[in-house]
Automatic annotation (TrEMBL):
Top-level taxon: Bacteria
4-aspartylphosphate: residues bearing it: 54
An example Gene Ontology molecular-function term: DNA binding
Domain HTH luxR-type: 142-207
Subcellular location: Cytoplasm
SMART domains: HTH_LUXR (SM00421), REC (SM00448)
Originating organism: Halobacillus mangrovi
Protein name: DNA-binding response regulator
Coiled coil segments of this chain: none
GO cellular component: cytoplasm
């Protein structure tokens, strides 16, 4: 079972989505929170496989909650589920450590698919979010850390940007899964990021991804 914590200050949203998710054979909503502070506490207590996080909540918003969770639990997989696509919400949420970013207009089955994909190591971003990342201007004072990547590591980074899992990369490049994991670890280290999502964001910001 994929365990899920759902944080949203709208009770009807939590009830509707949680009911659908709990009806799935492979997903279980084990806790709900209506505030960012409660989300942090419950996340660290239950350590769910996936955290669904609303952005706008009273007392503590989803961005701060995401930041606090990731700081104390770097392996956390957080899916932002929100109505906002403006830059001051998207980038801070991803930079805080969110793994995926979806809109509340998404159907419940799409959220379930995102949960499964994120659990498997993929990063799910709304097309509008991907577009924003691709068109965001690169900061001139950022060091070109990717120049330290080997050709193989750059190849794997491009496949990561396509949303491929380690297993899919292994199958496509005909290399061992263990070898892929070593390359991914090296990529994160050289780019000075803490997860795959941040590595993909780096690739888009630096125009490394073929358009």
């Amino acid at each position: 079972m994929i365990t899920v914590l759902f944080a949203d200050d709208h009770e009807m949203v939590r009830i509707g989505v949680s009911a659908y998710l709990s009806a799935q054979k492979d997903i279980e909503v084990i806790a709900e929170a209506d505030d960012g502070g409660d989300a942090v506490e419950l996340a660290l207590e239950h350590r769910p496989d996936i955290i669904l996080m609303d952005l706008v909540m009273e007392e503590m918003d989803g961005i701060e909650a995401t930041k606090q969770i990731v700081e104390q639990w770097p392996e956390a997989k957080i899916i932002i589920v929100t109505s906002f696509l403006d830059d001051e919400k998207v980038y801070p949420a991803l930079e805080a450590g969110a793994t995926s970013y979806m809109l509340k207009t998404s159907k419940a089955e799409e959220i379930a698919k995102a949960i499964r994909a994120t659990y498997e190591g993929q990063s799910i971003l709304e097309p509008e979010v991907t577009g924003k990342i691709m068109t965001k201007m690169r900061k001139p004072d950022v060091k070109d850390l990717h120049e330290e990547l080997t050709n193989r590591e750059m190849e794997i980074l491009m496949l990561m940007a396509e949303g491929k899992t380690n297993q899919e990369i292994s199958d496509q490049l005909f290399i061992a899964l263990k070898t892929v994991k070593v390359h991914v670890s090296n990529i994160l280290g050289k780019l000075q990021v803490h997860d795959r999502t941040q590595a993909v964001i780096y690739a888009f910001k630096h125009d490394l991804v073929k358009k």
